Amino acid sequence: QSMDSTLHYIHNDSDLSTSSSFSPEEERKSKVQDVVPQALLDQYLSMTDPSRAQTVDTEIAKHCAYSLPGVALTLGRQNWHCLKDTYETLASDMQWKVRRTLAFSIHELAVILGDQLTAGDLVPVFNGFLKDLDEVRIGVLKHLHDFLKLLHVDKRREYLYQLQEFLVTDNSRNWRFRAELAEQLILLLDLYSARDIYDYLRPIAFSLCADKVSSVRWISYKLVSEMVKKLYMASTPTFVVDLMNELVEKFCRCHKWSGRQTFVFICQTISEDDCLPMDQFA
């Protein structure tokens, strides 16, 4: 009985809230597909209606967000137009838990939709999440490499300027955020050129090497050693020479013992991981 009344509610045009300039008839046509029963899809799309949260379940928008990649996969990218409005509604939901859920799955959705739809419809949402609360930002940070590798090279380079913003968090005690950043930067080394690594990722890596929390520093030593390896293999040798000179200047000759200790640990990691030939290391 409740199912019947719900379906009646969905098919009642006066209840279909539309934020676009379409007439109710055009709005309904834009959400028609033939993969699953239309009534089932309509039921799902209605989960973002604020009145449902008050009468059915306060967490209903979060459930909707959690299921969205599965629904998108089932419908296929050719039917993304059915879900696009709902996705944008969820991405601007007042509850951070809803936005957080989307942030953790946006890389999966990008794979489903392909590069064109990702660039047009997901990148603006992704950019919004980058400026959100830490609870939401951690979702995009944890899968930063997975998302950026799907973008075109030019689009990907635009994010180089924003990476250092991850060093700033709402709560400075949130060291796991910086540890995750270091982990992601190791993966991102494969996506950028030697010049980009030297110009943009190197300053962030050095900052992380001097972090107050040892767990962050240990991951950062690995990051710097991988950076040395990557720059050594690049066609321009000056980058790795300049990087090593800076390591000596910044850490080996540091007036604090912790800086000199950092230098020893970085040397240990470079040596253990065979990042450089021994004559170059010497």
UniProtKB/TrEMBL annotation:
Name of protein: PP4R1 phosphatase
Organism, scientific name: Anthoscopus minutus
A GO term for molecular function: protein phosphatase regulator activity
UniProt-listed Gene3D superfamilies: Leucine-rich Repeat Variant
Gene Ontology CC annotations of this record: cytoplasm
Swiss-Prot/TrEMBL keywords: Repeat
Spans annotated as Disordered: 11-31
Keyword Repeat: yes
InterPro entries: ARM-like, ARM-type_fold, PP2A_Regulatory_Subunit_A
SUPFAM superfamilies linked to this entry: ARM repeat
